[in-house]
Design a protein that fits this description.
One of its GO terms (biological process) is DNA transposition. The chain is an alpha+beta fold. It folds into three domains: about 80 residues; about 50 residues; about 35 residues, no CATH class. Helices cover about 45% and strands about 25% of the residues.
């Protein structure tokens, strides 16, 4: 048996094990929910979920009153790994979108187009921009300021030094912002 065949068989075995573990976690989660909140079991519905080891088919349990939802699954999410975070990390490291699409297809076993990665990156950068321009409260009990210098890849410029400033404020009620 050659190494490629062995690698494929091993990846498939790991994917099946991940599917079995996730299915067990779903069952235990529903049982715990029903013990606390009461109610009765009401079958399953199918769901595909992309993991780091490939796509797995799950039977998501439900209850009769439709109050239960698995704790570790986000509604309508189809990926256990946040592709947006991985895409932004690759983008920040200076990896092209086409190369990032290839890397993600190797890591997740699913092909993402460079257009999809571009849309994900734009969405995350838009959220970061909204965070940066939000209004801050007028009063702070303490303010901690710091900064560091990093090497960053800029298209057309190569690697340049950028300063990253960190500001941490403690409100009078003790909340960190």
């Amino acid at each position: 048996m050659d190494q490629d065949t062995l690698r494929i068989l091993l990846r498939e075995a790991v994917r099946e094990t991940v599917a079995e573990v996730l299915q067990t976690v779903l069952e235990l989660d529903r049982t715990a929910f029903l013990q606390v909140h009461g109610g009765r079991r009401n079958g399953y519905y199918p769901r595909k979920l992309e993991t780091a080891f490939g796509q797995v088919d799950l039977k998501v349990p439900r209850d009769r009153e439709s109050r239960y939802y698995p704790a570790f699954l986000k509604p309508y999410a189809r990926r256990l790994v946040d592709v947006g975070e991985v895409a932004v990390a690759l983008y920040a490291a200076g990896v092209s979108q086409r190369k990032a699409a290839e890397i993600l297809s190797l890591l997740l076993g699913h092909r993402y187009s460079h257009e999809t990665l571009s849309a994900l990156t734009d969405q995350v950068l838009e959220a970061a921009g909204a965070f940066r321009t939000r209004l801050l409260p007028e009063e702070m009990a303490f303010v901690y300021l710091d900064g560091l210098s990093l090497k960053v890849f800029r298209e057309g410029e190569g690697i340049v030094r950028e300063s990253v400033y960190v500001a941490l404020g403690i409100a009078p009620d003790g909340e960190r912002r």
